[in-house]
Design brief:
The complex is a heterodimer. Chain A has a single domain, classed as MetI-like (MetI-like fold), CATH 1.10.3720.10. Helices cover 76% and strands 1% of the residues of chain A. Chain A is built from 13 helices and two strands; from the N terminus they run ααααββααααααααα. Chain A has a two-stranded antiparallel ribbon. In chain A, helix 5 packs across helix 13 (288-316) and helix 9 (220-227) runs antiparallel to helix 10 (232-257). Chain A is globular. By secondary structure, chain B is mostly helical. Chain B has helices at 4-25, 36-43, 53-72, 78-98, 115-136, 138-156, 159-176, 178-181, 224-259, 262-277, 280-291, 295-322, 325-332, 337-373, 384-393, 402-430, 432-436, and strands at 479-480, 503-504. A two-stranded antiparallel sheet of chain B has the order 1-2. Chain B is built from 17 helices and two strands. Classes of the chains: A mainly alpha, B mainly alpha.
Chain lengths: 322, 512
């Protein structure tokens, strides 16, 4: 297939979807019942002047098509208004929360991928055995388990009972640490939330990998490899696993876009100061400008991750452009 | 004549449905402790059956409309249509009374003496209608019986499905029998429980053998067991209703997208894709925060954030059905699109839709739990998620008050697992290919559903063998996998998602 056409098509698709989602974001706060100007103010006292001022700042006094244009102008320039709980520009509030989330999600995803894949490889390889039955059922249970509940159980066990790890936050309040000590403390704080975040995906990746291995093992080349007398290990690791990895990696990539939901729960439970906690806090304070921004970022993350997965796939699988 | 087995079904299910409805509507404030006569009185009390009037109006319109349609089109079972109209009339009368009678709709109080009588009449008429339908359409009744019997025979052989069914029956009975199991008054904010000597147990008392204290007490000294039992009602109801609504939306859009080719189908598909990439939790949080937190809003929010998965699955199956020969023939003799969709496409994708529905219920229950946990649930109706919310914000994990955290969480895991098992077992019944794959004999049937996996796929990177945990990607211009109507992958890719698909591109890439 024509490479350029493929890429152009994928990128156009992504851009189109981003435009759709951003327009939805615009509509979302205008189709909600109630006056958007009031929605965009803190609950409680809402003097008429403040409402009027709000109407001005968000251009709510203009006709709809004009609002739409202005919204796009602002969004493209990265302006999302003022957070009214923090009295700072939303962009600033959001920017400082991104890195903790990236850290949490990154570590969690790597953990989930590695563990899930290894569990799945052995389950698929020895299908029907005791190990397979146990891990597959475990995968189903992990899959059905609410993330936040698991997080609470972790706190109960490892933070409260055994006191191995702190119950939350990124650092001890009021303690200034530097260098190695800081890194150590960060890791201790990171462990439980990252583990909780990862556990939801371990089950899924395990089941996907298992299913993928099962399929590849039925293919002719796996049979050939066996027939020519390769050892079981060589068949598994040289021939089956690399082929089975491909779809799993793509799924991991695509899931990466959807991490926001997991991040919200893990961060809320563990007080981890990332985007998830930010959106939870702003929901409680009804801080709509922040919620809007986080929503848009989360959506764009999904679309971009999808696009990357598509492009990666093109390079990883020669059959795509054969 | 009616097949005897069909008759037996009607004779069994009519009283069963009646019992379930009565139990659902049983007044909350007549505890078992009040004695058998009080319970019986409560059971037949004036207040039983407090449906909101709009439900009754909807029922009246639907049944009467369907009956009139049957008469107009001169369908075979005339008596059936007439009975439907009869049910519609009863509903209308009921709605009139429930809405406050002649004095107007504003009364709001749904306290009339005849609710349970009317409910009984409606259920009995429903049973009669089923019977009359079978009288008019004996062949179809026979076929239905036969089909169901076959499905059940296959389903029964699947131990996971049976385990799921067992768990589900347990929790459903708990929810239905809640008024008889534990006093609803224990949920009152001031209802702390006491021990045998009348001493207050106090906050976070560990479990003891005393019934109310089986699961200990919460942060204000209330019975966790009472919350647990009553919560099961809300969790299950919200899950079932939200899944139903989501499936109706998803199936409708899926059928439309699959059936209309060209730009119309494309528009529906774009819409689905756009909704699919919207991260559901941030969206649900925005909606719940803005729309307020009550029972119905939660259902609507879950429904509108969870339909795209169903739409995709249904669409790909409709694409398969559309190419079947009998549809071509129907088209050749000049049937309209609408007719084909309704009479040929819908019945053929219906089993798939049903299998999806069961799986969506699991997702909907998890979603409801998540929203409630974040404090977006209905503050007046406890669900398992609400319990976890209170346990969390009141620091049960730091105590640690394991008796407050474990029961709701375990219940959620079990119920979600049960629905997943049932959905997968039913899926396997539908798709003979999944069944035959037990070549090794000892194979675990869980995920033994990967065909040759999604390695040789089209440019869209479109994915894989059908099945729930088979890898695959969702693609925008997918061709159906003709061999595989599996109903696996619906729902949300996030949160440990149900990614994957039975949507598979052409081998050479279904792009151009």
């Amino acid at each position: 297939m024509d490479k350029r056409r493929y890429f152009v098509r994928k990128i156009l698709n992504a851009v189109l979807t981003i435009i759709l989602v951003a327009s939805f974001n615009f509509a979302l706060f205008r189709i909600l019942p109630g006056d958007p100007a009031r929605l965009l103010l803190p609950k409680g006292k809402q003097p008429p002047e403040a409402v009027e001022k709000q109407r001005k700042t968000f251009n709510l006094d203009k006709p709809m098509w004009q609002q739409f244009g202005l919204y796009w102008g602002d969004t493209l320039r990265g302006r999302f208004g003022m957070s009214f709980s923090e009295k700072r520009p939303v962009t600033e509030v959001v920017a400082e929360r991104i890195w903790p989330t990236v850290l949490l999600v990154g570590v969690g995803t790597i953990f989930a991928t590695v563990v899930g894949m290894i569990l799945g490889v052995f389950a698929g390889w020895r299908r029907g055995g005791a190990y397979d039955v146990v891990t597959t059922n475990l995968g189903m249970v992990l899959y059905a388990m609410p993330t936040f509940w698991f997080g609470l159980l972790m706190i109960m066990l490892f933070a409260t009972k055994l006191r191995w790890f702190p119950t939350g936050r990124m650092e001890e309040p009021g303690v200034e640490l530097h260098g190695l000590a800081y890194g150590q403390s960060l890791l201790r704080h990171l462990f439980l939330p990252a583990f909780t975040f990862a556990i939801a995906y371990v089950g899924e990746y395990e089941l996907i990998m298992r299913s993928s291995i099962t399929g590849v093992m039925k293919e002719d080349f796996a049979l050939t490899a066996r027939a020519k007398g390769l050892s079981e290990n060589a068949v598994l690791w040289r021939h089956v696993v690399p082929n089975a990895m491909l779809p799993t990696v793509t799924i991991v990539m695509m899931n990466l876009g959807f991490v926001m939901s997991g991040a919200i729960l893990a961060e809320a439970v563990f007080n981890w100061p990332g985007l998830g906690l930010l959106s939870y806090d702003s929901m409680q304070k009804r801080d709509y400008p922040v919620m809007q921004a986080v929503f848009l970022i989360a959506s764009i993350a999904v679309i971009v991750a999808n696009l990357i997965a598509d492009i990666m796939y093109y390079y990883l699988d020669p059959r795509v452009h054969a | 004549m009616i097949p005897r087995r069909y008759r037996n079904w009607v004779l069994f299910w009519t009283p069963f449905i009646w019992l379930v409805l009565e139990l659902l509507m049983y007044p909350k404030d007549v505890p078992l402790a009040a004695g058998l006569s009080a319970v019986l009185k409560g059971f037949f009390s004036a207040r039983i059956g407090s449906y909101p009037p709009w439900v009754l109006v909807l029922g009246a319109l639907l049944t009467a409309g369907f009956g009139i349609l049957g008469l107009v089109r001169k369908s075979k079972a005339r008596a059936f249509s007439l009975t439907l109209i009869g049910i519609g009339v009863v509903f209308a009368l009921w709605a009139f009374l429930a809405g406050g009678g002649a004095s107007g709709w504003s009364a709001g109080e749904n306290v009339i003496a005849y609710n349970w009588v009317l409910q009984t009449i409606v259920v009995l008429l429903g049973g009669a209608a089923a019977w009359l339908w079978a009288l008019g359409n004996p062949e179809r009744a026979e076929l239905t019986v036969w089909n169901t019997h076959q499905v059940w025979k296959l389903y029964r052989a699947n131990w996971q499905g049976m385990v799921g069914l067992g768990i589900l029956v347990f929790f459903l009975s708990m929810a239905l029998l809640a008024p008889f199991l534990i006093d609803h008054a224990l949920l009152d904010p001031n209802a702390q429980i006491t021990d045998a000597s009348g001493q207050l147990l106090g906050p976070y008392h560990p479990p003891t053998l005393s019934y109310y204290n089986w699961f200990g007490t919460d942060q204000v000294g209330q019975s966790v067991l009472a919350q647990f039992i009553w919560s099961s009602r809300i969790s299950l109801t919200v899950g079932l209703l939200a899944a139903l609504m989501s499936t109706v939306i998803g199936a409708g859009i899926g059928i439309a997208a699959g059936f209309y080719g060209g730009w119309q189908g494309e528009v529906w598909m774009r819409l689905t894709d756009a909704f699919l990439v919207i991260p559901w939790l941030p969206l649900a949080m925005v909606l719940a925060a803005a729309w307020g937190q009550n029972f119905f809003m939660i259902i609507i929010i879950i429904a509108i954030t969870s339909w795209p998965g169903t739409a995709r699955v249904v669409r790909s199956d409709v694409l398969r059905v559309r190419e079947l020969q009998f549809i071509e023939r129907a088209r050749a003799i000049g049937s309209s699109n609408w007719h084909i969709m309704r009479k040929h496409a819908l019945p053929n994708v219906m089993p798939l839709i049903f299998a999806n529905l069961v799986l969506v219920v699991a997702i909907a229950i998890l979603s409801e739990t998540t929203l409630s946990f974040l404090g977006l649930g209905d503050p007046l109706n406890f669900s398992w998620g609400t319990m976890l919310h209170y346990a969390w914000v009141n620091g049960a994990a730091g105590l640690p008050a394991w008796w407050y955290l474990l029961p709701p969480g375990i219940a959620i895991v079990l119920v979600v697992l049960a629905f997943t098992f049932i959905g997968m077992a039913y899926d396997e019944v539908l798709d003979p290919k999944l069944r035959k794959r037990e070549d090794s004999g000892a194979e675990n049937r869980f995920t033994a559903r990967g065909e040759a996996p999604a390695v040789a796929m089209g440019g869209a990177g479109a994915g894989g063998g059908g099945g729930m945990f088979t890898p695959g990607q969702q693609t925008d211009d997918a061709m159906p996998d003709f061999n595989k109507p599996a109903g696996g992958s619906i729902g949300r890719p996030e949160g440990g998602g149900w990614v994957g698909g039975h949507i598979k591109d052409d081998e050479e890439g279904g792009e151009e």
